[in-house]
Design brief:
The chain is of the alpha/beta class and about 400 residues long. The chain is built from 16 helices and eleven strands. The longest helix is centred in the C-terminal third of the chain and has 18 residues.
Length: about 400
């Protein structure tokens, strides 16, 4: 288990939160069942949202002491909205953060440690990544490994090497269709970081070493970014398309392959229930691949901590965990849960995503959890500038390394 460190100051995002008011409640002191609120961007999704809402209703029906109510906030504004509310001492009682935001919230002491809640619970290695300063600050809502997603009607045999991958991508790029897709705009900085990281990890690289030192210009990291650049320049991707754009394109047969996370097949089927989907390990030199997580934390200012903790304990139970994993698609949950026969029959590709757990790693550099947003911005900006101007990748990453060292040393 690697225990991450937290910074010593309040996150910069918290200062922003103090500038603007926003609604939200941290519980109720009224008589009767205690009411708490649960916020997750997933609640707004057309496929998984109703199923997550139904899970909350199951909790309400399971006992008479507490009532949990859903709060849906769009993904694009989720982090800003939540930190605005938390910075004012308000906000939902239970919150599903993305992994980067939960580190920020823990650093600012805006959420409560869950040490007592998780006692005796068999958590996965992904859950252990949320241990910081020897405290458990959250538990996963979902853990999604990345893999190559492809349309088996178009790609009869998935590529197993990078050279094969480039060949297939070129062959599948025809009038009205692209062989591959990833994000390429600063507006989708976080997504570009994910896509870059998959190429970097697949080349055996990393953004930092185990001691928390940036390794942005290491030979392996540079090799991964150069591979990303090679695909960018090959004319096989819809440049400038957002993730929402090219996922819709995949769902309508206009993109043949993409490297994406295990939750995406559910999104694709929400657009087109009949779209053929298959998965394979990413065709890179090593098996390294990325992993993204949404993690549940409890508001430090909740007035009903016992109710919030009761919900998280219930959520970590076998029945709830099995239900959640069943509707997540190719994602995993906080505890080890076997796939059901129904899941395997409906979505046999989930086993490919599950198998990546042995090689998957977070997109957050080890030892630089709190500094990641600024480091990410420096790297993505440097890489995109080089791609769009035809600049030298090594030089771009040397500059990003210098900036990252400055950020890490502050």
């Amino acid at each position: 288990m690697r225990h991450h460190r937290l910074g010593v100051g309040i996150c910069a995002v918290t200062a922003l939160a103090l500038l603007a008011g926003c609604g939200g409640s941290a519980g109720s002191d009224s008589d009767g069942p205690k009411t708490i609120t649960f916020a997750a961007s997933m609640l707004g999704e057309p496929t998984r949202g109703p199923q997550l809402t139904a899970l909350l209703e199951k909790f309400n029906a399971s006992q008479d002491d507490y009532v949990i109510e859903p709060v849906s906030i769009p993904f694009a504004s989720f982090g800003t909205t939540i930190f605005t509310q938390l910075g004012q001492g308000k906000g939902p009682d239970v919150i599903a953060f993305d992994q980067m935001n939960i580190y920020e919230a823990a650093d600012a002491k805006l959420i409560r440690p869950l040490d007592d809640v998780v006692k005796g619970v068999d958590l996965t290695a992904a859950a252990e990544s949320l241990v910081m300063d020897d405290h458990q600050w959250g538990v996963p809502l979902d853990v999604s490994n990345y893999a190559l997603i492809y349309n088996p009607d178009l790609v009869k045999q998935p590529p197993t090497t990078f050279e094969e991958f480039k060949k297939v991508a070129r062959e599948q790029t025809t009038a009205g269709r692209f062989g591959f897709a990833f994000r390429t705009t600063q507006a989708e900085e976080a997504g570009v970081w994910y896509d870059l990281s998959n190429f970097v990890y697949g080349a055996g690289g990393a953004w930092s070493d185990d001691a928390g030192n940036p390794t942005i210009n290491s030979p392996q990291t540079v090799a991964g970014v150069k591979a990303f650049a090679e695909v960018y320049q090959a004319g096989v991707i819809p440049k400038g398309s957002t993730a929402a754009d090219y996922r819709r394109m995949f769902a309508t047969g206009k993109v043949a392959m993409m490297i994406d996370n295990g939750g995406i097949p559910t999104v694709l089927r929400g657009t087109n229930p009949d779209i053929p989907i298959a998965a394979a390990p990413a065709p890179f030199p090593t098996q390294g691949i990325g992993q993204v997580m949404a993690a549940i934390g409890i508001n430090a200012n909740t007035r009903n901590a016992d109710a919030a903790e009761a919900f998280v304990r219930w959520f970590l139970g076998k029945e709830a965990q099995t239900t959640v994993q069943g509707f997540l698609g190719g994602s995993l949950v906080a505890t080890p849960v076997e796939r059901t026969t129904e899941e395997l029959t409906k979505s046999p590709f989930v086993t490919v995503f599950d198998a990546q757990s042995a090689h998957a790693r977070s997109f957050i550099p080890t030892g630089l959890e709190v500094e990641t947003p600024r480091i990410r911005s420096a790297v993505v900006q440097a890489v995109l500038n080089a791609l769009q101007s035809g600049g030298d990748i090594q030089q771009a990453l040397d500059g990003a390394q210098d900036k990252a060292k400055q950020i890490a040393g502050e």
